[in-house]
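User: Hi! Is it possible to get a structure for several chains at once, not just one? Here's what I have:
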Amino acid sequence: MTINHTRRKLLIFGIGLSLTAPRLYAAQKAVRITMTSDASQIHLALPAADKRCRVFMLSAPERVVIDMPLTSFPPELEHALTVVRQKFSWVIEGRIAHFSPEVARIVLQVNSKPKITRNTENGVLTVTISAESHAAAIGPVVSPAPQAEKPLLVMIDPGHGGKDPGAIGNEGTYEKHVVLHIAKRLQTLLSQQHGIHAVLTRQDDVFIPLYHRVSLAHQHAADLFISIHADGFTNDLVSGASVFALSEHGAGSAMARYLSQSENSVDVLYDDDFKTDDQYLKETLFDLDQHETIHRSLDFGRHLAANISKVHHMHSPHPEQAGFAVLKSPRIPSVLVETSFITNKQEEKLLGEPVFQEKMAHALAEGINSYFINEKKNNLLS
Ligand SMILES: [Zn+2]
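Assistant: Yes, the chains can be modeled jointly so their relative placement is included. Here is the combined structure:
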């Protein structure tokens, strides 16, 4: 094993354990409360020794209740719930609220009594929740098929949100709103495809720091990550769509540099805790050997660009590269799509039109499909 491999393995292991360690729990360092998921199960990690941790069922309607010792309201868990709700058809609703000043409570409403297992190791209580049958976890399946392929999970990330409006057009169109529309249309289109499951990092107008978006994709085992934007530029004549993958060596063009710098500044501008956050954690996450993932991201980007160019003109016909923080996933092919420039008069108008949003979503869905088909072919050949 090379040093590089060892390093990578250690870092990934570190992410699995501590990526979710939210700053909100900084006051109670020993408590690492996380909600993650794999293809068919939801996992919760709770402090085993704390008697305030409780997991139980309520019926009519069926609910799983999880109590945990948290005095502050953790947005990380709220974001995880957003993903879990979309990912599992057997989870009808998921909420988090304070049960008492010292206890936060998650309530998952489920369509039938789920299977709950508990395991305590090294002071961590792991609670695993799954639908009674595997079939219920992934939707309608004709017969139980334990070796059936798991659905491919696409994490769609509508850029900006909440206090971060993104770019604003001259007519007052907000990037954060138009990209959410396109993202939701894309989710609907992908969810109609057999074997593909699509979830959004945000379903509403909420702020999520960039590195949380990256960690959400990892915590819920995404196969692809696509961040959707419609940024602005200082010159309002500039127009067209572009697709970006991560760069290990700086931006490939002045435009790529401008856009990535402007995108990456949102955490500094809007995330109140950014400066006090665990810098080591972020550096660990962003310091991984990205080579192979970037290669696959560029391939994914080519499939997207080929399809976008059928419905809209391209600012750059080929995927570009820049150091976008939101693309720094160690293993998940990730791209950022600039659908148009909101500062361009014609494109601002287009971005607000449902017909254009649908066309763009269609092109992205086609690109995702064609990437998956090609990957499958390559896997069969290799
Ligand atoms: Zn943006």
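Residues 1-29, 134-147 have pLDDT under 50 and may be disordered. The CA atoms of residues 214 and 326 lie 6 Å apart.

User: Great, thank you!
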